[in-house]
Amino acid sequence: MKLAEFRLRYNLNTLPELDLIHLSQKLRKAAVLIALYEVDNELELILTRRPTHLRAHPGQISFPGGKVEASDSSHQFTALREAEEEIGLQRSNVEVIGSLPAHKTFTGFEITPFVGIVKQAFHPVLDPGEVDEYFTVPLSYLLKQYNRHTQRFSRKGIEYPVHFIPYQEHFIWGATAAMIDLLCRQLSSSSAYTGSV
């Protein structure tokens, strides 16, 4: 999918119906950047793999992002600050075009994802304390519904959806896969756009 088509679909299509998770505990606020990077006229989604020494979500695939700090002026500021710290993506090099609904996790977080376009080519500089690996996934791969999977699991007698996406040697799952699935379902919605994927 080219950038112009992405913008059109993102701006015109409505969000699909959400499969909400109801959690009673107090949730810590976090924000992530769903960054799209145009390579040879095709969009790639930026992802990272967390180091195994981290206490929260060790070794998992994630978007650049993290906890909202008291000094952050907004959740969007958090997402951009964390992307700059983790992978060296300067906030001035990102055009934020919107956000998705906050995603609640069983690990006690409420994560607000912001969708952004990387404006110019950049060389990732990884913070080894936060990121083990940087990689991209073609948006065209993610848009194919058969590459995105959902299974339902029971927790304390309540069934919840768990999303996962295998890609090459990577296994994307949990909140990251759920946010990717939501974005892809929005982009694939036929309510406002009838072109082919």
Automatic annotation (TrEMBL):
<protein>
    <submittedName>
        <fullName>NUDIX hydrolase</fullName>
    </submittedName>
</protein>
<keyword id="KW-0378">Hydrolase</keyword>
<keyword id="KW-0479">Metal-binding</keyword>
<feature type="domain" description="Nudix hydrolase">
    <location>
        <begin position="27"/>
        <end position="159"/>
    </location>
</feature>
<dbReference type="InterPro" id="IPR015797">
    <property type="entry name" value="NUDIX_hydrolase-like_dom_sf"/>
</dbReference>
<dbReference type="GO" id="GO:0010945">
    <property type="term" value="F:coenzyme A diphosphatase activity"/>
</dbReference>
<dbReference type="InterPro" id="IPR000086">
    <property type="entry name" value="NUDIX_hydrolase_dom"/>
</dbReference>
<dbReference type="GO" id="GO:0046872">
    <property type="term" value="F:metal ion binding"/>
</dbReference>
<keyword id="KW-0464">Manganese</keyword>
<dbReference type="Pfam" id="PF00293">
    <property type="entry name" value="NUDIX"/>
</dbReference>
<keyword id="KW-0460">Magnesium</keyword>
<dbReference type="InterPro" id="IPR045121">
    <property type="entry name" value="CoAse"/>
</dbReference>
